Amino acid sequence: TRFLDIGTLDWIEADAYCVKLHVGAQEHVLRGPLGRFETELPSAQFFRISRSAIVNLDRIQGIRDLPGEDTVVVLDGGTELSVSPTRRRTLVDRLERGR
After folding, report:
1. What is the pLDDT of residues 3-28, one digit of tens each?
2. What per-residue confidence (pLDDT) applies to 3?
3. Is the distance from CB of 30 to CB of 47 less than 8 angstroms?
4. How many CB atoms lie within 10 A of CB 77?
5. Max CA pair span of the chain
6. pTM for the full predicted model
7. What is the DSSP string of the chain?
8. How confident is the model at residue 99, as a pLDDT?
9. Residue 76's pLDDT band (boundaries 50, 70, 90)?
């Protein structure tokens, strides 16, 4: 058993029947669907950007629009994650409001 301070969590990735918790250079794998973790995290700090990823809003360094309708968030450390087109506007609104 490991305890993690959720403030150190960068992002969560769906992976089959598990999720990967990304904390800096470390990954922690837990069994369970991404939706369950989404409901347990504070919505003021975390946002689901796609079917397969939830990000810690405090870790977002920027948003880049790519050719076409593709958008990525850039996290601390340079990790880039795709944002669902249907969630982009809500994400931008949350970031502009300060979460």
Report:
1. 888 899 999 999 999 999 999 999 99
2. 81
3. no
4. 11
5. 44
6. 0.92
7. -----GGG--EEEEETTEEEEEETTEEEEEES-HHHHHHHS-TTTEEEEETTEEEEGGGEEEEEEPSTT-EEEEEGGG-EEEE-HHHHHHHHHHHHTT-
8. 61
9. very high
